[in-house]
Amino acid sequence: MSITRAIDRQGATALPPPVTHSRLRLRHRFAIFSFFLLVAMPAYTVGWFLYTRVADQYASHLGFSVRTEESGSAIELLGGVTELSGSSSSDTDILYAYLTSQKLVRLMEQRVDLRAVWGDTDRWRDPIFTVDPAGTIEDLQAHWERMVRIEYDSGSGMIDLRILAFDPQDAQRIAAALFAACSAMINDLSIVAREDAIKYARDELDAAVVRLKEARKALTAYRNRNQMVDPTMDTAGRMGLVTTLQRQLAEALIELDLLRDSTRANDPRVVQATRRVAVIEDRIAAERQKLGLGQGNAATEAFADLVGEYEGLIVDREFAETAYTAALANYDAAQAEAQKQSRYLAAHIEPTLAEAAEYPERLKLLLIALLFAFFLWCVAVLITYSLRDRR
């Protein structure tokens, strides 16, 4: 009997303490109130705003890329297959930067009136997805980045855009105006690149033209000043005259020798032949002096200088003509090479017209807001309980 009581006493002591009913304490009420304040109320507010105040938005999609056409000459085409088209990544990078620039936003405002398209008559109806008609260009550019989404694939050089508006026709109109503005910018880039490619050749050609004009002008002034077209022709004529006189002198000397052998010294024919020889020799000497072949004097030196100056002018003119011909050929080649390459904007997605409003994605935005609020509430509760446990 005592052993049974001992066992019962040991079993009674091994039983767990009785469980008491839990009570809703102050910290529990605070957690529930904070959940309602930080999660339920913000989620309800966001949902009410999205489904009652935010207007439907229609999307127009547009896709394009910058293409470069390279057309070879007939000889190159006969030699083999040449590359006819390709993408230009550098031009696409410039175009991507242009799509987010204030210059483009201002241009689109002038063409489409973005403030009227994205604005609202009631400013407080939708202060997030509409733009203030009285806002600055910086405000309009910030709203542009929200309403126009740009996707750029640097590998393929393709750009895809999604344009949102409260009316499908407005969205398509913005997309069409955007494509036209980008096409104009690419055309301007092509013109600038073409001008840069032939600028050096044009400068060289202009310098060659100026040099040729100066050479011809100097030669014309020389001819007008000296009253002769070509001193070399005059020299050739004078040399012909000297040659003729030398032939006549030889004939006269032979005739004089024959007369001396057959007649007396005082014969009138010998005297006349002697005078004829002397006259011819004097004439030859005078002509040789004019040509600079005799003894030097002022007239001889002046004529030789004239010939030398003319030859120098002729050399300058020929060199200027050769340089002009080479510069003209180089300019034509550079111009043909620049015309072989042309840039244009190729659209692989034309501006689309939406039939249903897909934006804003209300459920997605509501879930994101709810998830963010829930995480914020969890962090706040954890911080509160950790501070309580430290006491």
- Termini gap: 52 Å
Largest sheet composition: 5 strands, antiparallel
Beta-strand share of residues: 5-15%
- Secondary-structure element series: HHEHEHHHHEEHHHHEH
The computed structural class is alpha+beta
Radius of gyration of CA atoms, rounded to a whole number: 52 Å
Beta-strand segment tally: 5
**Assembly classification:** single chain
- Total helices: the number is 12
What value does the average pLDDT take?
Answer: 77
Low-pLDDT regions: 72-87, 293-301
Give the % helix: 55-70%
Give the overall silhouette.
rod-shaped
Keywords:
five-stranded antiparallel beta sheet, 391 residues, alpha+beta
Commentary on this structure:
By secondary structure, the protein is an alpha+beta fold. It has helices at residues 2-14, 26-52, 74-79, 89-99, 102-112, 114-118, 137-147, 168-226, 231-262, 268-291, 298-340, 362-389, and strands at 58-70, 85-87, 148-153, 158-165, 341-349. Strands 1, 2, 3, 4 and 5 form a five-stranded antiparallel beta sheet that branches. Strand 3 and strand 4 form a beta hairpin. It starts with a helix and ends with a helix. Residues 72-87 and 293-301 have low confidence and may be disordered.
